[in-house]
User: Which sequence fits this backbone?
């Protein structure tokens, strides 16, 4: 298990595996072996060399601890890794050792291997996204007609449906994922350029090596090496960051609905260590924590973009921990929210009760808009303002206060008033918008 | 002039204007007037009301200072602005005052007006990008065959062409701008949802009002109001942030090439206040400053994404200064680099001299790759290592050291060696890559 | 008025003035004139030169717009400013023009002038802090015995006093301000080193000039010029950032207490543009917005710390907008919270009602701790767990459920139970802690 | 070994251990056992309970993987840990199991245990700082009289000594460490407040428990629990961030001095995977990478400060990975720079050669300052400007050009000129400043 206590809330098990020593070594090996095989096919490597390299590479695990230690004095893990692989090939097959890493630079291997890992991570994130998105859509459908308070600046506003609120989560999630997917396609490309990015060491075959290596590893093939141009990865990283912002928003909504005083929805949650009665929004906490951390991680990546010449001092070297943390944070938020949404206990009765508890105050706008065309908006506004004052001092529902005002009933019958000032009567385009947000009809 | 001393390096004049009080007020007015006109066309407003509102709105400037002051106690500038507009309409035309801001919520106006400003900003940024991109392309073409040192980790690496380096800048810039453009299309949409985002106050016509308002203002029309979902703006903001990262990279490259000890390229630069002989990389400083500030600004926007329910407390209120600063930083970097690139003095002789000054050390890889297939890579590596040592102690060029080694000349003639170890002979796919980066052929 | 609409929520009027063109120019002038006067006193400047420089400098305003424009091509506003000042002195007094900016480098003037502005800003922030701190202390005292729910993870927890909660705000504010004050003392020092920071141009008198200039301007005097070492400013900036984090926490607490469903406290707030009944937490929004923006601004400053050699390319040039934004954000949060706290309507009845509405669930811990020593914690935990279940299904208060359980009354009398499970009976060290937090007794 | 490949450049071995599962579990155990012991001493726990808890806790390792997994559904690792510890005590000693975690809340344990780990981390960082600081001081002393170019905006400026430059690094490092130390003292305090922070569950003894627990663990004791007030940790975290900014600055300086074209200093560095001749600034890369990542990590912590009520949803949960990453980044930078500084190869001959290669251009200021008092600054400036032009076109040293100008020699003899325009003659207060920066005399 690759998760750590210090990091337990910040990842999922699956994503911890993706960036584990085992997985990273696998990717490094796959890239070096893939390179050898491609070069063998092109006749660049002598017969047998690629097989010898593969046999050595896969023979037994490398010593990740030793490589990590050596990485710091080399500035990259690739240099000691290539050394270890070469030593092993040499031991097993002599001369083939000389063809390990042929024509490559260490950043070629590091970037390509990391992108192989990111591809695995993306596959897992995609599954998480799909599951969450489906759960959210089901939740929205289940509550298409469940009325609740709209809340702006944490104050009561005219009613919405819970289905509409949830559809808003859905649409943002879909937009975010479309951006991540597009950024992934662009970013997860092979890196292969040799020492200065010109492929000079391989002569005319260099471009072919890169193209075939990309195919071998299931990565895209870019217009040129991108050792010091990290905008594609940056676009991927920022797309994840934006996505996690939305996940944090959903989690915050849930945590607010779950307050004892609101009580409209509750995630399954976690238990307290001391308070037997308590159910904590643990999933929301995990997702909000992810959205708390990601902006800074995005900033860290962008800061590193200012890279020197053909390969950077430091900017590049800062990327791995940042990207791995960001991917895992996104995954942790997905996983937590999936549990929260799937197990969400929704209380429509409480939703209605909280709405009613405003005494109809949220229909003040509605009444004003209805009266304005006939009596003028200013008069209507003043009238409703007065009714709101009466409501607050008397505790009577606004609709009753209004129905008792002759200036009002001169224009609107008490029945129409009652109809108007009901949640169902004041939902506007809520259902159309919900369907549009779910992509079922076009705006 | 809207630029400030404290902000002088952080904007352009044009972009300072875009976010000036005058321009912001214009946008706010245009949105409220546009709303009234659209509602008049739909028969929602009584005849004459829209004209009265327009007449009042455009009659004389609003007091930006008073509005700014009042904005803080309201949490938004829109509330005092609507109050001021309403008062004015009421004074001029009586009842029409009641129809100002009909069915809208303040965030509808704030978001839409800000997007109108952003559209103007984008037009200016687009022009800046285009100009810079063209200048960079010209520079690359002019130096397609200018050889220079590749530099990795700020150390000499095999040669590249200056044209290739510059083409890398170009391709990153084009990718960035494509992302900004795509994000702009998605983000610069109208906001119109009324108090809770359901358009309830306007009844069935609400959706039409939004659609027509978008058309009136030249903005896109989204699937639903997005008061608390800021992912589209976030994607726009991050695309700018990524773009500025690349601009910082270009500027850093220039500042490094301009070092006295390197002397390969120089921007026109600025004068020192005390040192008569000095030319400072002022444009690079401005662009690097922009790329220093943008990651934090991006983080600030992403932090604000975790917004409560149907409208946030604070997250939304944090956006304007952040986005305006980011847009202006991007523009400042574009403008500065345009001056730097257009006026860049390139010194191909110095480039060659710096290459030669490595004594051919950068061809060590080349020699090793040439010798390896015949003598084995290990032997080749050891041999070349020894030659490099001799070169360093003797000061003789590597090619001469190699040409004097019988183990070498047994495999490669001195002539071939000299050919191999020349910059022109070791450029690999540089020109193909350059053309690919400029989009003139496909990878 | 120097505030802008785009920035209206992000500053106070007073702090907008501090960084206005007028104030910045005043500071630049004061530094150059101060330098001349000090040098005159030391006999470095010929008689009359300092007076001539002062007379010219103060004769009429400089053209801030032109200076801002020129700043970008110079990389600093100081170069065109010195040019303009020199031209003016020359026009008025001929040869004295040659002694403007004598022995200084532009960064000497820029840093020193900015620190002069920051000193003014700090004075204003200090007054804001003091006022807020006093208001918070009064609020805590007024509610020393007002019981309310503790809330952890937004769920009910055992009771606290409102006075304790508010005292927590107070202590954090005081700690923060102590850090800001200490950082200010360290950071607001003169910068004077000349071209390379050795004061070579002034010969042996250089150190005296700097020391006297510091005294002249009321700034501290550091061990050496700090052109490329920005840690002191960074410490000041981060202290402000930490401070604003606490202000955001206070504002979030207020916004949560002000929810309609909670209703325990309300800031005076702002009106809605459409909903007559609504009172918005406008002050909380402004303060939370500040705390949303500051982490990124802090990051931007820290990013710029990696400065090259004796003066940076870009890192330094990024500072002014960042620091000015951060200082103003802090001030905006102070001002907003001062209004919120001073005008806070606290509802102790509602606090008690919300506590009671938990049905005593928050005393489950209390009951368990009381029973455990006699019956064993496990048995006690199981028993209380069962009572909590009964309470939830029956709706009866926990204390009644417990009082009806013979296993409980075997150990604790119903009277003791009732005493135990009252808020006043379960406040623990709340008042001691409150007094410690207010600094009135030591822990 | 607890380091990971993905994180290899981002930590040291020692600091990876500090945050390892083993160390974190040890801290959690120490806190729970310490709590039991303290409560036993106070008579709160029955005789034998504390020994039973200790015996069980230390009997065999806990299953970190299982705890990590369970942490996510609980929102904290403490809940499953307490459960596991309780189960074990119960199995071994029956009733004593009921006294595990007595009166504590999970955040009490989490915060206190993490602070125990941070105390260990600080001890290691302090040793690293001390070693680095001593190495830097030695380096400064060794080069007190080694002249080199000052460089501003990466352009030549008047000479400095290498000892002065290095003393600047030293002083910044000392200031930073003083801030970290002060912040550590404030931040590394015990957390002990129980469910709502009032210590209600423990009655009057609560305060004593906290005080004695602090002593038991070697932590400080604060005025009150600080569950939702994170400013002390924030101040610690930002102090580390500022410190790492300076380390990045030092590393950047080294990487720039190590450029082939500059060649003034070189760290031992790492080998390239393909280029036999190459020595990479691997240590600088590691340190710059750290300073690239820390601003975003600081921002992430500050973002999390806006915590709700008595315990946050998410803000708190975001802290561990951020703080651990930041501490390790700081340590990685210290370790890397210690290697770089200790093994730094300095080339005073090259320093002088680079200075000479400016042709005396950097003395232009000097000449101008010398001539100005007699001929007027304007005339002097114009004259020197002309000489600089001549120098650039002719290639002759500036001093020769000046010595050939009668307007110059009318005022200054060629001998004095030669003296003036020598590096040693134009170092100003360099040595005084160096001693001040090293704290050997006061400014």
Assistant:
């Amino acid at each position: 298990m690759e998760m750590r206590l210090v990091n337990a809330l910040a990842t999922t098990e699956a994503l911890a595996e993706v960036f584990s020593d085992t997985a990273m070594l696998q990717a490094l090996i796959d890239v070096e072996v893939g390179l050898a095989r491609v070069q063998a096919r092109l006749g660049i490597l002598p017969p047998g060399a690629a097989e010898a390299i593969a046999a050595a590479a896969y023979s037994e695990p490398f010593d990740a601890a030793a490589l990590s230690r050596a990485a710091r004095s080399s500035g990259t893990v690739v240099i000691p890794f290539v050394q270890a692989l070469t030593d092993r090939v040499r031991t097993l097959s002599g001369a083939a050792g000389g063809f390990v890493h042929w024509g490559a630079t260490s950043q070629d291997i590091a970037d390509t291997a990391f992108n192989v890992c990111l591809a695995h991570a993306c596959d897992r994130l995609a599954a998480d996204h799909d599951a969450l998105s489906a759960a959210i859509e089901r939740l929205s459908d289940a509550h298409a007609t469940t009325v609740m308070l709209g809340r702006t600046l944490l104050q009561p506003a005219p009613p919405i449906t819970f289905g509409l609120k949830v559809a808003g989560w859905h649409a943002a999630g879909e937009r975010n994922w479309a951006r991540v997917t597009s950024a992934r396609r662009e970013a997860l490309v092979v890196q292969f350029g040799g020492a200065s990015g010109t492929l000079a060491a391989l002569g005319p075959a260099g471009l072919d090596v890169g193209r075939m290596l990309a195919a071998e590893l299931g990565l895209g093939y870019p217009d040129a090496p991108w050792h010091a141009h990290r905008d594609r990865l940056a676009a991927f990283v920022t797309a994840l960051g934006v996505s996690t912002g939305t996940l944090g928003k959903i989690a915050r909504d849930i945590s607010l609905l779950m307050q004892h005083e609101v009580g409209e929805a509750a995630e399954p949650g976690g238990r307290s260590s001391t308070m037997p009665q308590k159910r904590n929004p643990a999933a929301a906490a995990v997702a909000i924590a992810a959205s708390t951390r990601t902006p800074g991680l995005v900033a860290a990546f962008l800061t590193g973009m200012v890279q020197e010449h053909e390969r950077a001092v430091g900017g590049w070297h800062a990327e791995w921990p940042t990207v791995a943390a960001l991917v895992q944070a996104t995954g942790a938020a997905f996983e937590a929210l999936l549990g929260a949404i799937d197990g969400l206990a929704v209380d429509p009765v409480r939703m209605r009760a909280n709405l009613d508890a405003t005494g109809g105050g949220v229909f003040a706008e509605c009444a004003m808009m209805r009266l304005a065309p006939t009596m003028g908006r200013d008069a209507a506004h003043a009238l409703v303002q007065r009714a709101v004052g009466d409501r607050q001092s008397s505790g009577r529902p606004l609709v009753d206060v209004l129905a008792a005002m002759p200036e009002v009933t001169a224009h609107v019958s008490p029945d129409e008033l009652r109809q108007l000032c009901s949640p169902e009567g004041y939902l506007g385009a809520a259902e159309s918008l919900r369907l549009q947000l779910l992509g079922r009809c076009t705006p």
